[in-house]
Amino acid sequence: MRLDLLKMPNVRKAKLWEPISGREGWVVCNLCHKRCPIAPGKYGVCGVRKNIGGELYTLVYGLLSALNIDPIEKKPLMHFYPASSVLSMSTVGCNFFCKFCQNWEISQRRLERGLLGFRVTPEGVIRKALELGVDGLTYTYNEPTIFIEFMIDASKLAKREGLFNTMVTNGYATPEAVDELGSLIDAATVDFKGGGAREFYLKVMNVRDPDLIYETILAMRDKKWWIEVTNLVVPKIGDDPGHIKRMARWIVDNLGPETPFHLLRFHPDYKLMDLPWTPVETLERLAEIAMEEGLKYVYIGNVPGHPLENTYCPGCGYMVIERKGFLVTKFDLKNGRCPRCGYKINIRGEYRGTSPGFPISAL
Ligand code: SF4
Fold first, then answer.
1. At 122, phi and psi to the nearest 5?
2. Digit-coded pLDDT (tens) for 198-243
3. pLDDT at residue 160 in the model
4. Residues 5-28: pLDDT tens digits?
5. If you ran DSSP here, which 8-state letter would residue 358 be given?
6. How far is the CA of 324 from the centre of ligand 1 (A)?
7. How far apart are CA 270 and CA 2, in angstroms?
8. Kindly report the CA angle at 69 between 128 and 214, in degrees rounded to 5?
9. Is 26 exposed, middle or buried (0-12, 13-18, 19+ CB in 10 A)?
10. What letter would DSSP give residue 74?
11. Which residues line ligand 1 at a C-beta cut-off of 6 Å?
12. What domains appear along the chain, each with residue ranges and CATH number?
């Protein structure tokens, strides 16, 4: 049985684990802050890392559950290569158990129950990316940290071909994992939920210490990744203005006031079907609080057509980028500056205009 499993191409020796001294055959995985102690023959809580004979293996190397072209704005990354296109990919499994997960069919799927996915190689992914003419790769839909081994190999090849790499993450990777990714990752969307409140994370997501996410963001900052922060506002149980104030203050103090911040609307899904959609007024009130704390680029997400989908110049208020959903409908910058007042808009990477299905030309 052991030999059969190890022969499978999706099973590879894992990174970032060590034996536990005094516990014969046990290992601890140091990839995310859960730091699972794993007995021989057992899985970590993400369900895709297994202790086989006293060594830790990933079971999802090149075993994808999805591969799609997306506009970068969908991640959301609003200030990183605007209107570019990315090849998005995921595996099954996740280290979080969010009761509202929109992608629960892949994130909560466990390999031991049978779903695998389709096999690809890092070379195959890059070939597909070049054939499709995308600008970069994004590791997303489930928590990409849990498939770091594949992410690293694909990212190395992507870099060689001039593609960028981004990830959408819940921020629970350890600083060691961020270190392992190093300069291979160019940008990250770090997704908080419920204002990062401890009781919310415990009750709704089975996560003990959301404050560790801030530690991880600092590690990302030190690697010079482009960072945009999102927060899912869940009505009634995760919409406390005090938590948004605290989060916004932390971002201003640690990442700077020009960091894009997104407040995302919740919609009922998976096990949280009894809650309503987040009222737009709630999102607007929280956006005001974030701006009062000093954040200059605050967005409201999942409300197509809302004025806070656009980018306004912090210097004079002129709308420099207009969006409709994930579509960029106007891009009016001169050498990265507001054409009216000359304020330098904080954007990394140039406008690409390759978003799938939305061809527009820059002004
Ligand atoms: S990546 Fe998986 S196995 Fe490793 S610590 Fe996190 S949940 Fe546990």
1. -55, -40
2. 999 999 999 999 999 999 999 999 999 999 999 999 999 999 999 9
3. 98
4. 788 889 999 999 999 999 999 999
5. -
6. 37
7. 35
8. 110
9. middle
10. G
11. 29, 31-32, 34-36, 44-46, 49, 95, 146
12. 2-58 (no CATH), 63-304 (3.20.20.70)
Instruction: Write out the DSSP string of 218-262.
Output: HHHHHTT-EEEEEEEEBTTTB--HHHHHHHHHHHHHHT-TTS-EE
Two structure tokens written together for 348: 């990394």
Ligand 1 probe mutation, 34, 55, 57, 92, most atoms within 8 A of CB: 34
List, for residues 314-323, the tens digit of each pLDDT value: 999 999 999 9
Our CA angle for 129, 135, 137, nearest 5°, is 60
Q: What is the pTM of this model?
A: 0.95
* Residues 323, 47: Cα–Cα separation, whole Å: 38
| Selection from 328, 337, 320, 297 nearest residue 73 by Cα | 328
Taking CA atoms, 343 is separated from 114, 128, 157, 335, 339, in Å, by: 54, 39, 36, 10, 8
Chain CA centroid to CA 341, Å = 33
